[in-house]
Structure formats: C-alpha cells, structure tokens
Amino acid sequence: MVAGGVKGQAAGGARQHDGSGNPQDGHARDDWPDQPAPLDAAERRLLDLIRRFGTVGALLLAAGSLGTGAAPVFNPVPGVPVLGLFTRMPAVSLAIAWTGIFMVVLAWIWLGRLVRPGRPRLLSRTQLDRTLVMWAAPLIFAMPMFSRDVYSYLAQSEIAARGIDPYVVGPAPALGVDHPLTRGVPNIWRETPAPYGPLFLAVGRVISWIVGNHVMTGVLVHRLLALVGVAMIVWALPRLARRFGVQPVSALWLGAANPLVLFHMVVGVHNEALAIGLMLVGVEVALRGLPRLVPGEPVPPRQPGEFAWVALGATLITLGAMVKIPAALALGFLGVLIARRWGGRLVDLLRVALLLAVVFVGVTALVSAGTGLGIGWIGTLDVAKTVKSWMSPVTALGFLGGGLGILLGLGNHTESTIALFRLIGQGVSVLICATLLWQSFRGRIKALNGLGAGLAAVLVLGPVLQPWYVLWAALPLATAMVGPRFRVLTVAGSALIAVVLPPTGATFDGRTYVLSQSVVAGLIVVGLCLLALHRRLRPMWRRDGARPTTADHPAASGEPIASDQPPAPDQPATAKAAD
C-alpha cells in the first residue's frame, strides 16, 4: 500500500513542474509517508560499537597531532610532561594519526548503513547528533593538521589589527620575518596579501586584539569560529533536506558527519566552515518566508513578509561571500527558486535578480566600509594564481602543454600555457553555471543540485584546487541528491580524499619512507581491530529489508517531504532509551 501511495504521489508530482509543490522548488508538503521505525536492539548495539570505534579514532588522531600536526614554530608541547613524548617520536605519532584517520573514515562508512534512504528502520536525529559530538569533541583540542592556513589567518588578522591594509602587503613585509605569527605562515604566502573577504578579517582582527601574539590561543579561538560555522551547517542541512525530499539524517550523515568536515573544518580550522554555514543558513532563511504550496490549488498571492525573509536570507549569503567569494553563487540559485515561486516568468526572474543584486551590493558596501578594510579584497581574489599545483586540472594541463612545447623544441612557454588553460577553465565554469541556472529555472533540476554542481565546476576548473574545496559541492548536494549512484560516488570520493592527504600539512623533504611506513603501520593496527571485532560487526551485513531507493523512497521519486511532520509517536521514547 505504501509503494502504491508513493507511485500515486509521483504521478501527481509530475504535474507540479511549474513551482506549485514540487520539492525541487524547496516547498515541502504535509504528505511524508510512513515514518521509518527506530533501530532495533541489534542495530543499537551496532551503533554503539560504531560510535566507540569512531571516537577512539578521533582520540588517536588528536594524540598523533601532538607530534605530527602542523604545529606552530614556537610549539609549547615539547615542554609538557607526557605530551612532549609525541614530539620526540614523529614517526610513531604519524602512525597513530593515520590509524585514527582510517578508524574515523571506517566508522563513518559503517554509520551510513544505518541512514540509507529506504530502510524500514532508521537512525534518529538525536542518535546522529550524539555520534557527531562524540567524534568531533576530541578533535577540538588537536593541533592543526592537513594545512597551515590557520597561521595565515592569524598573521593577516594581526596586520588588520595594526591598521595596515592586509590587501596590500603580506605578513613578512608588514610584521617582519621574525615575528611569531609570520614564522608560522608557509613561505609561499609570506609575501602575498590576504585573499579573504573583509568580514572574515574583521572578525580575525577582534581575535587578534584578544589573544595578541599567542599562537595557540589564537588557533583555539579560530577553531571555535569554525565550530560556529559547523553548527550552522548542522542547523541548515536537515531543514533544507526536508524541503528537497531527502531524509534529514541522511543529509546530516553525508554532510556534517563527513570525515572531510571533521578533518578540514574542525581539525584544519578552515574558514570554509563559516562561509558555507552562512550560505546554507541564508538559503534556508530565505525559503522560510515562502508559503507552503498545495498541489492543485492556485498559487497564493505574495505577502509583504516574503520580501523581508528573502532579503534576510540574501544578506546572510552575502556575508558568507564576505568570508569567501564562492558563496555568492548561491544567490543565483536562490533567485531561481524565488522566481519560480513568483510566477516562473522571465520578468519574475529579472525582478528577483534586481532585488538580490541590490541586497548584495548594499551589504557588500556596508561590510567593506564598516570594517574599514575597503574594497581592496576585490583585487586579491586572484592571489591563489600564484600557486601552481598539479592538483588543479587546468593548471596540470598548462604544465603538460608547456612540457610538450619543450619536448618539441618550441621553447619553454609553461607560464603562457598555464595562463591560457586557466582562462579557458574559467570560461567553461561560467558557461556551466549559466546552463545550470537556466535548467533550474525551467524546473529540470533541483536548485540545490545546480548550486552544488556549479560550485564544483567553479572550484575544479579554478587555478587552485584543495581537498577541502570538495565540501563546497558536497554539502549542498547532500540536501537534494538521493540516488544510490550519487551516494556511492560521494562516499568513495570523500573516503579517498580523507586518507590521501598527509596530516602533517607539509612535505616530507625526501623522507617519504616515513609516510609509507606510517600508513602501513596504521593499516596493520586497524586490520587487527577489525579482526577482533568481526563477530560484533556481523549485524551490519544482514538483510534489513530496505526498500530500493530508486523505486519506493519518496525522495527518489521526486516527491516532497513535509518540513514539519512530527516523528512517529513511539520514536522519541525509543531513541531516548537507545541513547
């Protein structure tokens, strides 16, 4: 009966392609079908094992960071009893860190078994929240890992705190090469101005006023700022998922509990957490003011309050762009959603575009003037071009073209070929984003899917590509994509990226054998753990009677799920007992 009802809803939903109730327009209905049952006793025991396995991994990663993390030049850890032992055993610390990385990734993959769309029994929101807290809590106190960007944040914030324009000079000219904050900045960034928005540097300036030159305290405060961004992501993901027909716990698992979030936003302290958090919250806030649309009924007239909600959401997205500019792309896809709600005509799209443009320009001007940093940030948006990394596909093609020219005896034109391929990449990304915007406006794809794909195109075809850039695309897509192929690709990609980047945040200077030996040691330890736990892991592989997502799950059929449907009556009590 449930399958028949869902098929009937899918047939009705196909007629709502004009924006009246289809989940791709972000307007949920009150027809969420039967709620999944809570986990049974065996699955709760399995959940407890997964939680503890991931928590032990997070603890090992935090411990390993003491000896192998991206520690500051003036590192206080060596002088601390017991903890200082890790700094004298870098190879052992690296093996401990790799063991923790593998354990967290495995625990996350196992947890996905309990949140797979279409299961008759599903992990509750409370259980997932507690799992996320258990895994993230040990990482709050870890040394920075995987990157040294946080030291650039501290140095550039100190420049702003001194009244110097961080968009004109870099840390070395402004602070001096021997300054404690400058010495933590990677050499390639010591001479370059800040590539971040004025809002982020204004917040960093306040942090600098508070902590001064104390590096470790500054790192901790910046990590707390990143946690604020993660909290915004946790708040927005399930709400957006309901609007676009995805189980909230599935979106949270794929998004907030993703190892890339834990490793690069929490441990790595990247300001992507704040930028993406503001972007997602802005989209949700803008949609909250729009009335729920009922299939078969006329579109209700616009209410005055709609403009206020849209303006507030657009303001939050713009603030995210004032941290990192890619967040501004969300304004385009938000405009498509609103235009479809307001009639779906080209004139409606133009009106929304004008409204959002006014908000963007106004908020940008206020932030730039209010922070006292001006609009110099516009001129530093291309600072990343100074880095020539093979990880960027267009830069790699430029290197390849230059190398072929040398082999053919045409001379060394590597710089020119890199510039040419980067220009082509930027043009292609603009074309892709324009196509995705038009397809979203015509109702052919969900706007959040378009946003995720557009951000992926902008960053993959950009001059520099870093592993944590994947989160710009993965988090919006987690709220709107439910297909099994997407889940498999996302899980495989996230797991692969999470384990290929060394946790040190630096090269090994010819000592690659240390890295390989540490990885092998970590794999051996994890293998022994799996051997010891194989009996307790057996329930994970049993048949759970899950319905095929592509046929029976309402999200897969394109049908919306109510955004405020209460859970099953017995679920809260059962979940409480389970936790």
Give a description of the structure.
The protein is mostly helical. It has a domain at 388-463. The chain is built from 23 helices and no strands. The protein starts with a helix and ends with a helix.
Write a brief structural summary.
Keywords: Glycosyltransferase, Membrane, Transferase, Transmembrane, Transmembrane helix. This protein is an all-alpha fold and 579 residues long.
List keywords for this structure.
579 residues, mainly alpha, 23 helices, 0% strand, disordered N terminus, disordered C terminus
What's the end-to-end separation, in Å? 32 Å
Helical residues, percent = 55-70%
- Main sheet overview: none
SSE arrangement, N to C: HHHHHHHHHHHHHHHHHHHHHHH
Give the helices and strands, then pairings:
Elements: H1 2-13, H2 41-68, H3 84-87, H4 90-112, H5 125-136, H6 149-161, H7 171-175, H8 198-211, H9 215-243, H10 248-254, H11 259-267, H12 272-288, H13 304-321, H14 329-341, H15 346-370, H16 393-407, H17 414-441, H18 447-460, H19 470-478, H20 484-500, H21 512-533, H22 549-552, H23 571-578
